[in-house]
């Protein structure tokens, strides 16, 4: 699917380091491309380094002046997250885009740390990664952390004593909960940054209804699968615009949630997105943060 929106105008990111998780396809690839075109040194943090290197080669061919490197990261495995983070401790990180994710599994599956797979991949791994890299983010001047939400987050219902959905699991609920958690994480991270004078800005973004690798057949399969519904869908490039806006635009408000503002929030230009109910509760934000620290065993600085 071709891009329809006018490309975003963002300031030069030359000399700045950006880490984009899940950058080998879809929204992550489009985000890595946009930040690279703006001059950033981009790390494609991916589960499959071979696939990541293919993407990096494509991006280098398109923009030879850019720097795109590949590093292995499986956000479902917290030990793999630690290994990845160790390589960046002591470095300055200007942009951390927490995009990696899976759409769901047919049955409840668990990770090596016994966490529910979707929550671990989409949320727990990113929470831990940010905690481990927070000093590297603080070393930058107004670093940006961007979490990936979804319009599906509206259906999320987080139980803070059962984040791993051990009592009641469904594929749809696991995905919705993981995306709601990511939105709430960004908002609470911003509160901690402001209170602790960390000097970083946190944002959440969602791509609307975009054609990505999570859909059967990807770009090629969507027209056959959805027919006329493609008229209200976005390309991955257009879907990435809210993410790129949060990562690089001076107009992005700290703690804000952004997404498409046309067609009921599934497509269109970037604007403020409505927050799901739990994400509007300060008490719920704090409860999620505390529960996640307990579940993962990783704490942010006090």
Automatic annotation (TrEMBL):
Q: Name one GO molecular function term.
A: oxidoreductase activity
Question: Which domain of life does this protein belong to?
Answer: Bacteria
The name this protein carries in UniProt is Short-chain dehydrogenase/reductase SDR
Stored InterPro entries:
NAD(P)-bd_dom_sf, Sc_DH/Rdtase_CS, SDR_fam
SUPFAM superfamilies, from UniProt? NAD(P)-binding Rossmann-fold domains
**Pfam families noted in UniProt:** adh_short
Query: Which lineage?
Result: Bacteria, Bacillati, Actinomycetota, Actinomycetes, Propionibacteriales
For this protein, the record's Gene3D superfamilies field holds:
NAD(P)-binding Rossmann-like Domain (3.40.50.720)
Write out the entry's keywords from A to Z: Oxidoreductase
Question: Which family is it part of?
Answer: Belongs to the short-chain dehydrogenases/reductases (SDR) family.
Per the UniProt record, the source organism is Micropruina glycogenica
